[in-house]
Amino acid sequence: MTATITERPTQTAETTAAATATQATTDTQTDANRLTFAVAMIAVMVAVTVMAVVGAVTGIPTLMFASSVLAAITMGVGIYAGINLLQAR
Length: 89
Fold this sequence. Notes:
Shape: rod-shaped
Radius of gyration: 24 Å
Distance between the termini: 43 Å
Number of helices: 2
Mean pLDDT: 76
Number of strands: 0
Structural class: mainly alpha
Order of helices and strands: HH
Helix content: over 70%
């Protein structure tokens, strides 16, 4: 623990570089997680749309009602996630 004055700035620069690299890795992982969530929400929206079409074609009111409720929930979550994705950029 007897570092000279010239060694201390080097230690600080190395620590700062390691912290910056860790932060960059964390940001990349967070962006990947957000993108994965957005893709999953799009898949859910497509599935609900197919469910609504099947309900409309077959004329089953329960299926149409369930798809409309799921569509409203999915739309709210998708819009919220999209806004967060845009703000993250």
